[in-house]
């Protein structure tokens, strides 16, 4: 699994969606999507991009199951939180309230797990986190 490629490519998708939402809000003069816009950009674009760059810069072992699960939970959690938030706020007819709320909560919880795994990786592989010599 190329962790950097996957994370950066998904972050670009979130950047495009977040930028589109921001543009839509500006053009419409409505701040209706502001919370979703912010979460898509921070959780989707910024966090996934930061994770991807982390894996590109530091030599975390390619076969690390911990890193693999961190990436998987980051992808699932960022989608679950963002899409669940959208469903919760806008309550589409096809999604019952309880389903929307659970999707939102489970997505956010999975994202929290991803950040916990990232913290474990940062400390477990701490010896690999070195500045490059100029």
TrEMBL record:
Transmembrane segments: 7-26, 38-59, 71-89, 101-125
Keywords noted in UniProt: Membrane, Transmembrane, Transmembrane helix
SUPFAM superfamilies assigned: Cytochrome c oxidase subunit I-like
Keyword Transmembrane on entry: yes
InterPro entries: Cyt_c_oxase-like_su1_sf (IPR036927)
Annotated protein name in UniProt: Cytochrome-c oxidase
Species assigned in the record: Paenalkalicoccus suaedae
């Amino acid at each position: 699994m190329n962790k950097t490629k996957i994370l950066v490519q998904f972050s670009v998708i979130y950047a495009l969606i977040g930028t589109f939402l921001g543009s839509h809000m500006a053009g419409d003069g409505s701040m209706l999507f502001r919370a979703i816009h912010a979460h898509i950009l921070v959780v989707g674009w910024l966090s996934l991009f930061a994770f991807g760059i982390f894996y590109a810069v530091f030599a975390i072992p390619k076969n690390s199951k911990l890193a693999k699960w961190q990436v998987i939970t980051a992808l699932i959690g960022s989608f679950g939180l963002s899409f669940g938030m959208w469903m919760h706020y806008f309550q589409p007819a096809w999604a019952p309230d309880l389903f929307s709320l659970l999707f939102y909560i489970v997505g956010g919880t999975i994202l929290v797990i991803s950040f916990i795994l990232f913290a474990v990786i940062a400390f477990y592989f701490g010896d690999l986190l070195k500045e490059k010599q100029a």
